[in-house]
Amino acid sequence: MSLPPEKASELKQLIHQQLSKMDVHGRIREILAETIREELAPDQHLSTEDLIKALRRRGIIDDVMKELNFVTDSVEQELPSSPKQPICFDRQSTLKKTNIDPTRRYLYLQVLGGKAFLEHLQEPEPLPGQVCSTFTLCLHYRNQRFRSKPVPCACEPDFHDGFLLEVHRESLGDGTRMADSTTMLSISDPIHMVLIKTDIFGETTLVASYFLEWRSVLGSENGVTSLTVELMGVGTESKVSVGILNIKLEMYPPLNQTLSQEVVNTQLALERQKTAEKERLFLVYAKQWWREYLQIRPSHNSRLVKIFAQDENGVNRPVCSYVKPLRAGRLLDTPRQAARFVNVLGYERAPVIGGGGKQEQWCTLLAFLCRNKGDCEDHANLLCSLLLGYGLEAFVCVGTKAKGVPHAWVMTCGTDGTITFWESLTGHRYIHKPTNPDEPPVAEQPKPLYPYRTIGCVFNHQMFLGNCQPSDAVETCVFDLNDESKWKPMSEEAIKSVCAPGATTSLPPFPPLCASTIDASVTSNEIEMQLRLLVSEHRKDLGLTTVWEDQLSYLLSPALASYEFERTTSISAGNEEFQDAIRRAVPDGHTFKGFPIHFVYRNARRAFATCLRSPFCEEIICCRGDQVRLAVRVRVFTYPESACAVWIMFACECAS
Predict the structure, then answer these.
(1) Predicted pLDDT of residue 53
(2) What average pLDDT does range 64-85 have in this prediction?
(3) CA 143 from chain center: how many Å?
(4) Cis bond leading into 253, ω under 30°?
(5) Which residues have CB under 8 Å from 271's CB, separation 6+?
(6) Positive or negative: CA dihedral 38, 41, 45, 50
(7) What is the DSSP code string of 260-286?
(8) I need a labelling partner for 274 at 20 to 30 A (CA). Which of 193, 416, 436, 437 fits?
(9) What SS3 class is residue 387?
(10) For residue 171, what pLDDT is reported?
(11) Which DSSP category does 490 fall into?
């Protein structure tokens, strides 16, 4: 393979830098002196072959070849569907061992420990093998995602990870050229860092979310700089420091020409100024829009018309910026499968200290995905983004459920005018058929099946519409979004000025989804064995023996697969074969009982405790009688982001 002259010189420069870094020249001189001293006669000359043999014998050549690792195929690119593991690095210096394309520009980010995590000041040192709470650092930069190794929670957590971020510029069609300093200065995407705490039970908590401005490295000497990053808390604690990370940034290959720090600072200041002006103008417009909305009807003041929402850092952002068309690649095949994926992500309301109602916190997508759980607004924003990615006309609806509880769900508008509501927390879909309040009382009206009571506004990444119909009751609403007498729109241009990709530097970019790292078969077996043990212990405490029927356990599999298929597609299939197999397996004069249940977590002990709270399940587990045979089957269905649906079925057969 022939290289163009500029690439060849670049490659030579890289090899020279690597040899200098390993001090290969010094080691060769030492071996040369040693060989001449020990092995040669006074009048004998040292040949090149003799020197190479000596170098090979002492392992120098092997060391060099191990260090020089280049990618074999520069055309093949890594798909953004699985989180990249941190690059190994030498604590003393920089890159140690990784596949690097010498024609691309990289930013090497090292996390060199943390300090002042005062909440963990009294935390004892974990003993070897002891399960303890851990910190994990998740990063996203320009469609690349990384995750650090978990480290034990401590006042000074031992973070020592390196992340190799490729800096590229797809938009100008020069993705094959190595980005220079000026080009990189115009790339305003920050590095989004999210710190997650995982407790000993596997429960995750969002500790901090930070946007790192990396371009200061462009004005640093040799393209290397060290930073101290103070992480602030989230939600109500967004003004409180939770800890400090020591970070080192390095450009690779090193920059031929660095910019002056003044140029870098000027560029960043101009961007901040431009963003602030756009946000100010949008705020002025939003206030004017709201005044006009209230002039239509004063009672509109009590409607849930949500124009701005606070993110995890307490920053007010337009709601339209939380939604964007999101493609799942090959990880999800259909809109209904996407709805199922969002449904199996955990639901948890934003934590609040003390009483006084609901704490508002709309998470950025990376924080939601890394924590693997969030509030109804987080679920609705993600589902709407995925449905937009599938080419549907989707909107997030903000309104209330029964008893006036605020809620968010998703709506799609069909080309034939069909309005479908999608409940992101359950995956259920409802067709909306409006009731006509002017119909005579005797006329039969459609009874709504959905749980929604009122609706204040709908929005997506391009549109925001306030409900200005006489009543905000969902059942009487007409969803003709083009009728301005029913829905007051915001200017699409105004929304685009602050919510379009790249419109402002304050918008966090959307990360790609990652493939699951869970092995479904292994996890299913592990949970099943743990449940067998728990059932046997529970029956032993009651003075009962336990006999397991393996064949019956296996026969429960089709039922669990059928239940998950129905949740995903709303189509029931395979029930006849399951019933026929059970009838054949259960002898005459015996009774069969089965109890299926569904979870979105993988904690067997917690699942077993929940099952025992059901009288029907307890009756199966604690079954007494003649010839009692027990069965349990677990089936884990994996989804992106290591989310999973866990189906468990307990069954027993006994003499009637």
Answers:
(1) 73
(2) 48
(3) 12
(4) yes
(5) 188, 505
(6) negative
(7) PHHHHHHHHHHHHHHHHHHHHHHHHHH
(8) 193
(9) helix
(10) 52
(11) P
Residue 85 in tokens: 């593991």
R_g (Cα) of the chain, nearest Å: 31
- Phi first, then psi, for residue 261 (nearest 5°) are -60, -30
Mean pLDDT, to the nearest integer, of 560-569? 92
Among the listed ranges 92-101, 346-355, 611-620, which one has the minimum average pLDDT value? Answer: 92-101
Please tell me the distance from the alpha carbon of residue 648 to that of residue 620, in angstroms, as a whole number. Answer: 13
| 385 neighbors 412 (Cβ within 8 angstroms) | no
137, 148 in Cβ contact below 8 A? yes
Q: What are residue 318's DSSP bridge partners?
A: 308
Highest mean pLDDT, choosing among 74-83, 101-110, 389-398, 537-546 = 389-398
Coil/strand/helix, residue 224:
strand
Cα-to-chain-centroid distance, residue 366: 5
* pLDDT (0 to 100) of residue 354: 59
Helix (H, G, I), strand (E, B) or coil at 512: coil
pLDDT at 341: 96
Contact criterion met (CB below 8 Å) for 81 and 329: yes
Instruction: Please write the tens of the pLDDT for every residue from 273-323.
Output: 999 999 999 999 999 999 999 999 889 999 999 999 999 999 999 999 999
Q: What is the pLDDT of residues 474-491, one digit of tens each?
A: 999 999 999 999 999 999
Structure tokens that stand for 603 in this block: 């904690």
User: Which position has the token pair 């199922």?
Assistant: 340
Report how many helices (DSSP H) and strands (DSSP E) the chain contains, helices first: 16, 25
Helix (H, G, I), strand (E, B) or coil at 146: strand
From the list 85, 60, 203, 59, the residue with the least C-alpha distance to 139 is 85
Tell me if 640 sits within 8 A of 332, measured CB to CB: yes
Distance from C-alpha of 370 to C-alpha of 382, rounded to nearest angstrom: 13
CA-to-CA distance for 71 and 76, rounded, in angstroms?
9
- The residues that bridge with 647 in the sheet, in sequence order, are 598, 635
Which residue is it, tokens 């969902």? 474
Q: Please say whether the beta carbons of 640 and 513 come within 8 A.
A: yes
Which tokens hold the place of 358?
Answer: 């609901």
Please report which confidence band the pLDDT of residue 75 belongs to, taking 50, 70 and 90 as the band edges. very low
